[in-house]
Each structure stands twice: as C-alpha cells, then as structure tokens.
Design brief:
Number of helices: 3
Protein name: 2'-5' RNA ligase family protein
Shape: globular
Number of domains: 1
Strand order of the largest sheet: 1-3-2-8-9
Helix content: 10-25%
Distance between the termini: 34 Å
Largest sheet: 5 strands, antiparallel
CATH architecture: Alpha-Beta Complex
Organism: Bosea eneae
Number of strands: 9
Keywords: Hydrolase, Ligase
Structural class: alpha+beta
Pfam family, one: 2_5_RNA_ligase2
GO molecular function, one term: ligase activity
Length: 216
Amino acid sequence: MFYHPKIRRLSPDQFDLFGGGGNTGPAKPSLQAAGQSDAAWNSYFFAVVLPSDIARSVDALGRQLRRSMKLRGNLVGPDRYHVSLCGIGAFGEAPSGIVDRLKQIGAPIHEPRFDIFFDQAEAFGSSYGKRSLVLTASDTLPALLALQRRLHDAMLAASVPIDERFNPHITLLYDRRPVPRIDIPRLSFTVPEFVLIRSVHGARRHDHLARWSLGS
C-alpha cells in the first residue's frame, strides 16, 4: 500500500487538481505542521495536455477574459494548460515508489483517441480564498470520463489514495473576484495521449514524467 501520512489532495498551485467545483474544496493543509516549506511541495497527476495551437488559443482567450472581467490573477500559461484526470498531492519528496507505481498504472491503459471541447467559462470555488477561472463543457465528455475512470479504478486497485470528484476543466487563473458563467467560442481538439505530471509548487513548473499514446 502506498498510503503516506503527508499525502494531500491538492497543491497550492493546483487548487482544482481533482475538479472540485462550486464552493467545494479541501481544507488548506498546514505546511508548517508538516515541517516543510512552501517550495517543497510536489503533486503528481495524470492529465491531458493541450496541443500547442490549442494552448495558444486558450491563452489568448484567457487574456481577453482577464481584461473583460477585470481580474488580476496571473494566467497559468500555455506550457501548463491541461485537463487533470486523477492523481495525488504530497509534501516534500514523493512517497517511496509512488512515481514508479503511477507509471505502472498508466502503461497498460489503451483507450482510443477521442475529441473533447470546451465552450463555457466560469469560476470554481476554493477554500484557499481564491476562485479559479476555468473553461468547462456544456455537455458530458464520455470518452474523457472513460479514460479518467480507467485511471481512477487502477489507482484504487493499487491502493493509491485518490479523490472521488471529477469535473473536467481547464484552469486559466486564480482570482478573488466572482465571475458569472458565460459562453465562449467552442474550442475542440483530439486527445492523442495522456501524461503523468509532477507539479512543483513555487516554481510554476510542470515536469512530464511519462506519456502514453492513445489508440487510433
């Protein structure tokens, strides 16, 4: 079993890692109580990474929304836009063997390629005192849900701790100002692969640890 007492659901630079929406969100963990500094925080998660052209379009849209909604938060940026699937958060170093175990979980999953879209912008709540401005879809995304469920079930079978919530979205920025849900021009793309990411809090960096192609 890979349970570790310092595992947490989210990291501060990944408020909605598992898709908590509305006013939901986990309680803010105490880094001081764990004897760690803010810079020591890593999280590990499976995700769909946006193609470069879509990431640039999302960034341009984010700039427009930030300006029109009078927000001040920094955009996540084209190199970090993604759709989180499932994963863990941890203080300091990863629990022993967990990265290798996550790679073992991802390797045998061979879902077909699929298309997804996003056509709304809205704010998700957070217990960190900020809201996340996100892109969401007005309809279900069954192929994405199927991929997430395969990973979710594999993590459970491997006794890796996991959050049960999943709400597909792309996070643009974090800000305290509330914003309404609005329609946006539809952004759609084909998902050719999924990726295992390490998010390093304080460094605004995503390290891609492994990637797996989806079938044709």
